[in-house]
Amino acid sequence: xxxxxxxxxxxxxxxxxxxxxxxxxxxxxxxxxxxxxxxxxxxxxxxxxxxxxxxxxxxxxxxxxxxxxxxxxxxxxxxxxxxxxxxxxxxxxxxxxxxxxxxxxxxxxxxxxxxxxxxxxxxxxxxxxxxxxxxxxxxxxxxxxxxxxxxxxxxxxxxxxxxxxxxxxxxxxxxxxxxxxxxxxxxxxxxxxxxxxxxxxxxxxxxxxxxxxxxxxxxxxxxxxxxxxxxxxxxxxxxxxxxxxxxxxxxxxxxxxxxxxxxxxxxxxxxxxxxxxxxxxxxxxxxxxxxxxxxxxxxxxxxxxxxxxxxxxxxxxxxxxxxxxxxxxxxxxxxxxxxxxxxxxxxxxxxxxxxxxxxxxxxxxxxxxxxxxxxxxxxxxxxxxxxxxxxxxxxxxxxxxxxxxxxxxxxxxxxxxxxxx
Length: 421
Hints:
Layout: H1 16-22, E1 60-66, H2 73-92, E2 101-107, H3 112-125, E3 131-132, H4 137-149, E4 154-156, E5 171-173, H5 178-181, H6 183-192, E6 198-204, H7 208-223, E7 227-234, H8 242-250, E8 255-259, H9 262-274, E9 280-283, H10 293-296, E10 304-307, H11 316-329, H12 335-357, H13 365-378, E11 380-383, E12 386-390, E13 396-398, E14 402-408, E15 415-419
Parallel strand pairs: 1-2, 1-3, 3-4, 4-5, 6-7, 6-8, 8-9, 9-10
Antiparallel strand pairs: 10-14, 11-12, 12-13, 14-15
């Protein structure tokens, strides 16, 4: 079990520099210190946290480091939406004993360096107590070690590749691992067509998550006694899939499985259908967003995608989240938004538990980060995803999983995810 140690660093402050840092949401800045810099050394020693009463002129900063730009933005924008709904909801309920939380957004873009820069800024400049992010597992393997060395807790909102919690003692995730979620989609495909025998698999070879997910899919295919007819590789930046799609169709598969992101995956679906493939298509978690609908449009119809969230989950917190999302965006909330909301929720509820033992406003930042990390791992949380908890290593315990099928409207311009029973 993890047993983080408490270090007596400089007091966690509520000074003007923190307020400035908190106000810099939705901006990306170049970090001014290295990942090995102590997270407490930049705090002004001249201002005592006891000088400002809690909840009067300060807020507790929580970092949101997700992709707001690049080809990953279709997913990151949904995470921003879920996090902002959580910020308003929990602040309306009083924050942390009257002290509001303040989400500090940094754009990771779609690559590893973008995530590293965002995490360094959140840790060393914005002085956040914890981070929800990044969007991609590929980014997590590069950026999470920086947070772990700085002893800053990270909650992964969408990193489902194998090995994420094992990055370090301060890394946990609210996104169920692909090995648990993905096989459900294959089960659903076999239920729709028990005659499936041959399977073609596509995956983005430059994305850690896609490589991890396709491994799970391929293992599931073999375990079901199906023939893996062909494996085709592509890049998340590709737009032309004619060669790979033709190769796959020539193998005459009954089922095609795609592990990629929304933009490339959506284009691949479109080109497969245009070339005449009429069988079942399974999309991986990277396609688990309504933003894919604008890419493949009418040709998205029928695609199966396993889910770790259902808008129809019956709980009070999901009802509140669903109504808030539908009110703002006029559609059902997607999984990526629900997971981001959950990440913020876990931090808020863990902060409340820490505060009940020792006032947050009186704790040095380094101590608060460590205490927060220890607390969040032992809590149980009733979230939009259902009831969740964590293993001592930081892996999520989640009970309910689903499979949805894309149903496009007659005009082919709009559609929705219909959850299968």
